[in-house]
């Protein structure tokens, strides 16, 4: 049936309708980011077991975690006194025999036959002798265990409620029907020159490899695709952003810029001075600036942006600063007003919630040729918003925006220079992959006077003590945050949730305090209203999810409590910690939880260092990049297969290949690139805006 179905339709079909899935399982697959039949096909193993990891049965010890291969020499169902029925099999290889037991799975007696060869992984415990408890296993059928030893077993990422075995069986069941539907999108010539297998072959190899080498070649092809697509999008973003400018080069006139320097209540740090110099050099050249300013939370990026804005203004141009939330935009306006009042400049606020009168007035000013500094949200890039003379586009917390938003602001006005700002420090090689070929300035020096935040790890059993500590701080007139990994409690995850804990705390330990609940399902307007009340001291504690990660600056908040910190990336925790320690008082970040020794060691990094760069490195080293850049965060689809940190060589080839393709065919219009354009549109729909603005 599959082969005759229209292919795209079939791959895009909700996974729920695949045989063997159904509604309940579809919900589980959803958590693995598997929404369609095609997603299932592209859900690739994260590990393989093969002969090199197989233990001879004779040398399996109690207490060990092992993978073995053995032939079933006897089997049967064993009832227990409690009514539980256990399927048991005795497995043998050349070195010995072992019993394996599957409690509660008597039905296996039908599918596992005597003389079948099983590949089994799991712990070995002592129960009337050695007994293996299979966690993952596969029936290799009646093959010769010798040849089975050469088999490679795919191990997939799973989630609670679905086992590796079930997922493997599901993929096995559909692989042959789905793989032929995937269209080859790399031009043959390119593929041949890079020695990459075809896409269908690669998919078969990653799911059912005959050898580890085959699995790796298949994986490399899929990883190459991801890196290559992103590089194509970057080439395009850069082509759009860097189109030659119609002759404007900013000139340092030393009117506004020098006035700010004189009026500044503090001395610039060395790093700030350096960054400003780099930006001024870019803005002074006729080439369009496309620069990323990286600096840890509190490193003082805003004032650097103000200097750049004033350079634009003293040349008669407008500057726009785009922030991810209304609250952050308002906060910026307040800070900037403080810096710019002595210069007789008032920044303009431009957000979706301006009154219609204020909005019309602001729109009129933007559309005029008056030099100004406007601070706003993505309202700035709406179609209706027009600039009379935009010369500089600045994007704060740029990882919160998609590629197309960044390009859209740059697309307003007279091909403005672009400055991206980010508090998530990433290695340069990674920045290149994620953001394309841009220049980078780094603020690696903190302004003096900021007190380090005291960071503590506490066991869950200390929960009440921690809350009592918070209560004492509140009694002194301070404020605090409590962050949970999830909004609502679920049976599947034994995690504390913001909603339940809000109820529990406000009728318990913190009953005397003014608490507010804040999470992503609360509408943006109400969320901003709550934040404002917190800022104005009308709320003592925000019980929240990570929505507070960006954008709030309340110097009176001195306590940040994070429950289940093991559920967060280190950089994310560092960002959360950055919400406190903004005033003169001693501040605390208390991480409550921590699971096993691995997690404790990981969290210890936060206790040991306050350096965001070091923390990001640890994050990358420890957990791969998924945690650093969720899909929502980076604006780019997350890599499913590729790891830009480790796949450096592949990445270089992807960059070269993308450059060659885009030089030959910048709009991807040639027939050889038809399939490529199509798959880009399907996978990266939002980013494909770039091919429309150009
Ligand atoms: P971020 O890089 O996180 O955006 P900000 O620009 O908000 O940091 O700056 C954080 C704080 O440091 C602000 O209160 C700002 O006024 C202050 N600041 C910035 N530069 C300096 C400096 N050179 N000396 C002293 N304080 C500074
Ligand atoms: Mg900032």
In short:
The chain is an alpha/beta fold.
Protein traits:
single chain, 694 residues, alpha/beta, OB fold (Dihydrolipoamide Acetyltransferase, E2P), Rossmann fold, seven-stranded parallel β-sheet, six-stranded parallel β-sheet, 39% helix, disordered N terminus, binds adenosine-5'-diphosphate, binds magnesium ion
Overview of the molecule:
The radius of gyration is 29 Å and the shape is globular. The chain is built from 26 helices and 21 strands. The strands form 4 sheets. Strands 11-12-10-13-14-9-15 form a 7-stranded parallel sheet, sandwiched between helices. A 6-stranded parallel sheet has the order 16-21-20-17-19-18, sandwiched between helices. It has a 5-stranded mixed beta barrel with strand order 2-3-4-6-5. The chain is of the alpha/beta class. Residues 1-5 and 622-637 have low confidence and may be disordered. It binds adenosine-5'-diphosphate and magnesium ion. Residues 301-302, 396 line the site of magnesium ion (MG).
């Amino acid at each position: 049936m599959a082969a005759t179905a229209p292919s795209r339709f079939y791959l895009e079909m909700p996974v729920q309708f695949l045989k063997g899935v159904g509604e309940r399982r579809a919900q589980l697959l959803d958590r693995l980011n598997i929404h369609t039949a095609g997603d299932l096909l592209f859900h690739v193993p994260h590990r393989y077991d093969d002969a090199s990891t197989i233990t001879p049965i004779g040398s399996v010890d109690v207490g060990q975690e092992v993978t073995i291969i053995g032939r079933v020499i006897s089997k049967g169902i064993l009832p227990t006194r409690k009514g539980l029925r256990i399927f048991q099999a005795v497995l043998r290889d050349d070195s010995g025999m072992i019993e394996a037991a599957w409690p509660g799975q008597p039905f296996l007696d039908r599918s596992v036959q005597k003389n079948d060869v099983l590949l089994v992984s799991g712990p070995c415990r002592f129960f009337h002798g050695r007994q293996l408890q299979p966690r993952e296993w596969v029936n290799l059928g009646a093959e010769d265990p010798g040849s089975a030893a050469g088999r490679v077993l795919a191990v997939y990422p799973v989630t609670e409620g679905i086992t590796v075995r079930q997922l493997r069986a599901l993929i096995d069941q559909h692989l042959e029907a789905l793989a032929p539907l995937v269209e080859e999108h790399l031009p043959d010539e390119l593929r041949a020159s890079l020695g990459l297998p075809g896409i269908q072959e690669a998919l078969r190899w990653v799911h059912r490899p005959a050898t580890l080498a085959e699995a790796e070649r298949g994986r490399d092809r899929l990883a190459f695709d991801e890196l290559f697509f992103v590089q194509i999008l970057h080439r395009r973003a850069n082509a759009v952003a860097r189109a030659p400018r119609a002759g404007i080069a900013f000139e340092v006139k030393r009117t506004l810029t020098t006035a700010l320097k004189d009026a500044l209540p503090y001395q610039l740090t060395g790093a700030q001075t350096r960054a400003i110099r780099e930006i001024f050099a870019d803005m002074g050249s006729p080439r369009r600036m496309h620069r990323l300013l990286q600096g840890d939370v509190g490193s003082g990026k805003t004032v650097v942006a103000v200097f750049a804005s004033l350079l634009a203004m003293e040349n008669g141009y407008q500057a726009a600063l785009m922030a991810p939330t209304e609250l952050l935009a308002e906060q910026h306006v307040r800070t900037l007003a403080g810096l710019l009042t002595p210069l007789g400049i008032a920044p303009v606020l431009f957000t979706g919630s301006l009154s219609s009168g204020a909005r019309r007035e602001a729109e009129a000013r933007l559309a005029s040729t008056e030099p100004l500094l406007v601070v706003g949200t993505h309202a700035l890039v709406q179609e209706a918003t027009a600039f009379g003379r935009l010369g500089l586009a600045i994007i704060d917390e740029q990882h919160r925006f998609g590629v197309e938003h960044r390009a859209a602001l740059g697309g307003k006005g007279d091909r403005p220079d672009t400055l991206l700002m980010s508090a998530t420090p990433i290695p340069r090689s990674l920045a290149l992959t994620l953001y394309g070929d841009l220049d980078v300035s780094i603020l690696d020096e903190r302004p003096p006077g900021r007190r380090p935040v005291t960071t503590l790890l506490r066991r869950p059993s200390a929960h009440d003590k921690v809350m009592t500590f918070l209560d004492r701080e509140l009694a002194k007139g301070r404020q605090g945050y409590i962050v949970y990994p999830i909004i609502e409690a679920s049976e599947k995850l034994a995690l504390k949730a913001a909603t339940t804990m809000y109820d529990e705390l406000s009728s318990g330990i913190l009953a005397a305090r003014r608490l507010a609940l804040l999470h992503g399902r609360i509408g943006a307007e109400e969320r901003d209203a709550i934040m404002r009340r917190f800022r104005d001291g009308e709320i003592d504690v925000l019980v929240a999810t990570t929505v507070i990660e960006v954008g709030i600056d309340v110097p009176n908040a001195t306590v940040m409590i994070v429950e289940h910190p093991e559920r967060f990336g280190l950089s994310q925790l560092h960002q959360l910690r950055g919400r406190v320690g903004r005033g003169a008082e001693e501040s605390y970040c208390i991480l409550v939880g921590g699971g096993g020794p691995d997690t404790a060691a990981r969290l210890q990094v936060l206790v040991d260092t306050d350096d965001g760069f070091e923390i990001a490195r640890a994050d990358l080293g420890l957990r791969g990049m998924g945690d650093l850049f969720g899909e929502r965060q980076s604006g780019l689809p997350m890599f499913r297969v590729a790891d830009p940190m480790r796949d450096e060589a592949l990445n270089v080839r992807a960059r070269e290949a993308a450059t060659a393709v885009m030089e030959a065919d910048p709009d991807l219009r040639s027939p050889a690139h038809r399939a490529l354009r199509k798959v880009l549109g399907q996978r990266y729909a939002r980013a494909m805006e770039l091919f429309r603005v150009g």
